[in-house]
Design a protein that fits this description.
single chain; mainly alpha; globular
């Protein structure tokens, strides 16, 4: 049986996971960063001001996610994701009319919570619940949505802002969420693979010691705390690199449009290769065996970005980071299901996701403060 033939029976659910991942892009740092320049100018914000707003909004979304993420254990993926998409669209409409920095902060919270938070969480949790033997491969396929967004949306956002302005750009995004993403997702999930986590006990996959761990049990055991640095490190590094895209290109002397057009697709392709490579390895050897090596891609990418001079070197640096991003998406997506089981996976992953969001909040705030203090990128 060919690979495509083996995937065909599960295509609706795999496609739904990828669609949710792609839709989350409008709340991800790599997309929001395209608006950083116009928002800083519109509301007279310094690097530190903008970083503080972003940090506060993301911290708030991390706190909200620890509670809202539990809904993935009791709601079906279809109605939960559709509700998030509607809320996401309302936030986008609000952004098109924002007139003050404090309302911008509230709407950034909405972007982060709906996009980076809930849609990403629902996509990855659903893959963990719906698939067992080929869980890592399913996660790798779903992360194609992240990669597609990273490849096309930053440059697309810059182009649309130039054509219609940033306010109308958000109206277009709201329309896409309501009239494209929501109907397509509803159609893909018209027949859900797993209606509820508790509905079909034989489908559940146990974790360590043959148990299904609750969130409170997980945090009381030392393995979880050993995982935490690896859970938050990539979110910290990647968010700073994407969040400070405008500043990075300015200090490096690179053209912003050229960097977005070249570096983000290179990053996306590398992330796709990394996710499928690590997905194959995780299904074959177990995701826990990848923990000692999966962070090396982002470590090397960050070092190369610091050393890069020309635009090509910057593109290569971000591509190396992309390999690390693909590894991170697979390992983070699968390790909690493998270690802690799938019965309470929504609540478990909500906490791990919230920690990553917390790290992604601290990066922009600290980097903005350092830039204001004269510390170079």
């Amino acid at each position: 049986m060919t690979v495509l033939a083996s995937l065909r029976p599960d295509a609706p659910w795999l496609s739904a996971g990828a669609l949710m991942a792609f839709g989350s892009s409008f709340g991800q740092t790599f997309f929001i960063a395209a608006f950083a320049g116009v928002w800083r100018e519109e509301f007279a914000l310094s690097h530190g001001d903008w970083g503080a707003i972003y940090m506060a909004a993301t911290l708030a979304s991390a706190v909200a996610l620890t509670q809202a993420g539990r809904l993935a254990d009791v709601w079906r993926a279809r109605p939960l994701a559709l509700a998030v998409l509607v809320a996401f669209a309302l936030v986008a409409v609000g952004l098109s009319f924002v007139t003050a920095w404090w309302t911008l902060a509230l709407l950034i919270f909405g972007l982060r919570f709906c996009g980076q938070g809930m849609l990403s969480h629902i996509a990855m949790t659903s893959m963990g619940k719906w698939f067992r033997a080929k869980r890592a491969r399913a996660i790798a396929i779903a992360t194609l949505g992240f990669s597609l967004g990273e490849a096309v949306l930053p440059a697309g956002a810059i182009a649309v802002i130039g054509l219609v302005g940033w306010r109308d750009a958000w109206l277009l995004i709201a329309s896409a969420l309501v009239f494209v993403f929501a109907p397509l997702l509803a159609w893909l999930l018209r027949r859900e693979r797993r209606p509820l986590a508790a509905a079909e006990p034989p489908e559940l996959s146990a974790g360590m010691d043959g148990r299904h761990w609750t969130r409170s049990e997980m945090v009381s055991e030392r393995t979880f705390w050993a995982l935490v640095p690896g859970l938050i490190g990539p979110a910290w590094i990647g968010t700073v690199v994407f969040f400070q895209t405008v500043h990075l290109t300015e200090v490096k002397g690179w053209d912003l449009a050229a960097y977005a057009a070249l570096a983000f697709p290179a990053y996306s392709l590398a992330a796709t290769a990394g996710s499928f490579g690590f997905g194959w390895a995780a299904d074959r050897f177990g995701v826990a065996r990848l923990l000692p090596v999966y962070l090396l891609g982002w470590a090397a990418g960050a070092a190369l970005m610091g050393l890069s001079g020309g635009l090509l070197a910057g593109v290569i640096a971000l591509a190396v980071g992309g390999i690390g991003s693909g590894a991170v998406s697979v390992v983070h997506g699968a390790v909690t299901a493998e270690l802690y089981g799938t019965r309470w996976l929504g609540g478990v992953k909500a906490l791990t996701y919230a920690l990553a969001v917390l790290a992604s909040a601290l990066g922009p705030g600290l980097s903005g403060a350092l830039l204001d203090a004269g510390v170079g990128f």
